[in-house]
Amino acid sequence: MRKRTNTNRCFGMLVRIAPVGALLIIGGCTSSKETLPSGYQDYKIQKGQYFVEYSEKYDYWDVLTIEYPVLQDIETEQVAAINDIFYKMAMEKVNYWHLEPDTEVKELQKEYSIFSSDVHCEVPYHSQHLVSVHFQEAYAPISPVHYIHMTERAANVDLTTGKNYTLSDILTINEDFSKLWCQQAYASGDYGDMIQEDDDTY
To answer: Given CA atoms 25, 45, 74, 163 in this order, what sign does their dihedral have?
Structure first.
């Protein structure tokens, strides 16, 4: 396994959740009796990489390039937990399909000719209170030709508490939200024919 690194400086304030365009403001308004944590004005996010090329540990080939962010220059106990959130999210599919298989996946692995995964991460937003990380992955169990899967996931972590915010923390996920999201996705054209503006979609 080899690791490679890149470094970015971090500042900012808001998170945009596409395609609806909702904004998440961490902290919100406070009364005169409340005080927000001061946050962190200057820190680093270093990009780490889990890299494997034909390790020969398994009965099939494995090719892995997994990027994940690593927080640095913050002296708090929750930093290790935050970095663990990022790392586990980056490794989610690799662990499930390759490194930590359950009984069902172990049976499926007998058919593998190769397991490949490429995870790209970026930090579209960062501030003294919040870091948002976007992961895009292409992975292929069994065969890189016939079983290619594309997936995306994200983490929105409060630097002062270590809490990872999900959509259900800031939005009510119900039929109305699903309809609005589908309408916006259809109007954007970003999803091609995958999303249609009809009752079956909603």
So the answer is: positive
Per DSSP, 2 falls in state B
Helices then strands, counting H and E runs in the chain, come out as 5, 9
In angstroms, how far apart are the furthest CA atoms of the chain? 64
Using CA atoms, how far apart are residues 179 and 186, in angstroms rounded to an integer?
10
Question: CA-to-CA distance for 47 and 7, rounded, in angstroms?
Answer: 7
pTM of this prediction exceeds 0.85: no
Among 54-58, 69-73, 130-134, 166-170, whose mean pLDDT is lowest?
Answer: 166-170
By the 10 Å C-beta count (0-12 exposed, 13-18 middle, 19+ buried), 15 is classed as buried
Among the listed residues 85, 44, 48, 81, the one whose alpha carbon sits nearest the alpha carbon of residue 67: 48
